[in-house]
Specification:
The complex is a heterodimer of chains A (about 325) and B (about 200).
Chain A (H helix, E strand, L loop, with lengths): L4 E11 L4 E8 L12 E9 L2 E8 L10 E6 L7 H8 L5 E5 L2 E2 L9 E7 L4 H13 L3 E6 L5 H8 L7 E4 L5 H8 L5 E6 L2 H13 L7 E4 L11 E5 L4 E5 L5 H7 L17 E6 L2 E2 L7 H6 L2 E3 L4 E2 L3 E4 L2
Parallel strand pairs in A: 8-9, 8-11, 9-10, 11-12, 13-19
Antiparallel strand pairs in A: 1-2, 1-6, 2-5, 3-4, 3-6, 3-7, 13-14, 15-17, 15-19, 16-18
Chain B lengths: L14 E2 L6 E6 L5 H4 E2 L8 E6 L10 E4 L5 E7 L2 H14 L4 E7 L1 H14 L6 E5 L5 E5 L5 E5 L3 E3 L6 E9 L4 E6 L17
Parallel strand pairs in B: 1-3, 2-4, 2-7, 4-6, 7-8, 9-13
Antiparallel strand pairs in B: 5-6, 9-10, 11-12, 12-13
Helix pairs in contact in B: 2-3
Classes of the chains: A alpha/beta (about 325), B alpha/beta (about 200).
Chain lengths: ~325, ~200
């Protein structure tokens, strides 16, 4: 089954810094944009000549405002093509196909208070969070960590919500976070989004200070590399073998071979692409399987994981 | 009709200190040695308090500090009655920060009242652990008139509100901290099963 898509027209492109651009979309057919919630993302299908990039970006506007959808894209030096394409080839008036907004990083509705920790462009889901919290009057606090040269860019993005709840840190350490983690009233939930190293450090520090896992939430923005050792994926049910080269991800290779495989986030988070492994040892790179499931080697998340063995037999 | 495979009947395990906590508060609805109600106090590695319902007016309101098990210090505090403990607990939870672990041991009416206060204060289920001790008597919620009847030890009990003869079911409500009671002779008035002592 193909996911439902929508045609979006680029209403505005706003450069924020040499590497950051904001894009605002409206439905090409007019009307309201599809509903979403704080933390939702949008998958864009970017047709770059013969190549099709499927990139997901966090939505940054208040979801209650259905007049438009907005994202911020950082042009990555080692881009697989998606961010460079958006930065260089997409302008106002262009129409882009997109999936319906999906949310793998929702706000915990039972929380009394929300503590957010972001690194760099990882602030994007929190822009939507804060817009929603500000509208509802829910208490929140944001600690944003970034490079000194980008301080002004992020300060400007967060300016509408500036106040006691907003802290921007540029000293390259997480020292500013310790006091905040020690002083949160009961009922506070913690959310972090940014580079893996930052999220790992934040979650580790919180757990050391007695935060149970149920209060901790994180979203990776797919910093994981797709590449690795080449291998052969044997698709048992389809009866074909797919060569996965050093630069291509397993899911991409399966799709290129014309086989439809389940998937959603393509970032190892949602669990939709789980496939049973009949033979071979997967190299797990996802955030979905627990330690026991990983050790059993019975499952693989095809969007990010690869193979440790030259052949990997999948029930697909 | 009485005891079925109802999944809401709570299952309890013996309490143990959660080493990840930064402060621990243990509550008991009767005087019991701390080591009897919870494991791991000697290696808690964080401040530990033990609040006990003494059930007598002759209590010293001041907290007493002493050793717990092998090493850790414990601050013990006695309360005249459960109501007084709940009052102080609400106050304490209102000032607490993330990192607290709460433990409650006692009869079901007590431990689920604690769970309710904890939830209201924003504690997650993982941060509040409960274990049963003492009598099995039940709080029974009349599904007809919504009255809660306390201290029921029999399979059939008269509702304190509407007087209906209620069958005490295993169907447990965490929000009411009570078991569901349904009129036993609703279909054939006066036709009642024998009364058994089930929850001593």
């Amino acid at each position: 089954m193909m996911a439902q898509t929508i045609a979006l027209r680029v209403a505005a492109v706003t450069p924020l810094s040499p590497t950051l651009k904001a894009f605002t979309f409206v439905p090409a057919a007019g009307g309201l944009v599809p509903p979403s919630g704080p933390g939702a993302h949008l998958r864009l299908f970017l047709r770059d000549g013969a190549k099709l990039h499927k990139n997901a970006y966090s939505l940054i506007a208040n979801p209650a405002d259905r007049s438009h959808l907005s994202i911020i894209v950082r042009r990555v030096a080692a881009s697989k093509g998606g961010s460079a394409f958006l930065h260089e080839q997409v302008g106002e008036g262009d129409v882009i196909e997109a999936g319906l907004p999906a949310n793998l990083f929702p706000v915990t509705r039972t929380a009394r208070r929300h503590l957010m920790v972001s690194g760099g462009i990882g602030v994007t889901p929190f822009l939507a969070y804060i817009a929603a919290f500000a509208a509802e009057g829910t208490p929140w606090q944001l600690h944003h960590f970034c490079r000194p040269d980008e301080r002004e860019v992020f300060a400007a993005l967060l300016a509408p919500y500036a106040g006691g709840s907003l802290h921007i840190h540029c000293d390259g350490t997480l020292d500013g976070l310790d006091a905040a983690l020690r002083r949160q009233p009961l009922g506070t939930h913690l959310y972090t989004c940014g580079p893996e190293s930052l999220m790992g450090a934040v979650l580790g520090q919180a757990q050391a200070l007695g935060w149970p896992k149920v209060r901790l939430h994180s979203e990776s923005f797919g910093g994981a590399v797709a590449g690795g050792e080449p291998f052969i994926a044997v698709l048992k049910r389809s009866g074909i073998e797919v060569a996965v080269d050093a630069e291509t991800g397993l899911l991409d290779a399966i799709e290129a071979a014309g086989v439809e495989a389940p998937c959603l986030c393509r970032g190892g988070a949602c669990g939709q692409c789980l496939i049973e492994v009949a033979d071979g040892v997967p190299e797990h790179r996802d955030h979905f399987l627990d330690a026991e499931e990983r050790a059993s080697n019975r499952f693989i998340m095809t969007c990010v994981s690869r193979s440790r063995t030259p052949r990997l037999v999948l029930d697909l | 009709m009485l005891i079925s495979n109802i999944k809401s009947r709570p299952v309890y395990e013996r309490l143990a200190i959660d080493g990840a906590g930064r402060r621990h508060l243990v509550l008991s609805d009767a005087p019991r040695p701390l080591g009897e109600v919870i494991d791991g106090t000697e290696s808690a590695g964080a401040p530990l308090a033990y609040w006990v319902v003494a059930g007598t007016s002759a209590v010293d309101g001041q907290p007493q500090t002493g050793p717990a098990g092998n090493a850790a210090e414990v601050e013990t505090r006695a309360f005249r009655a459960a109501a007084h403990l709940f009052d102080r607990l609400t106050h304490r939870l209102g000032q607490e920060t993330v990192g607290l672990r709460l433990y409650a041991v006692g009869e079901e009416g007590f431990i689920w009242e604690v769970a309710k206060l904890a939830r209201a204060a924003g504690l997650e289920t993982e941060e509040c652990r409960t274990a049963h001790a003492g009598s099995l008597r039940r709080r029974v919620f009349c599904v007809h008139c919504k009255t809660i009847t306390e201290g029921v030890t029999t399979s059939l009990a008269a509702c304190a509100g509407c007087g209906a003869q209620l069958v005490v079911r295993d169907h447990f409500s965490r929000s009411h901290a009570a078991f569901m009671g349904v009129q036993a002779d609703a279909e054939a008035p006066g036709d009642l099963p024998p009364v058994e002592e089930l929850f001593p």
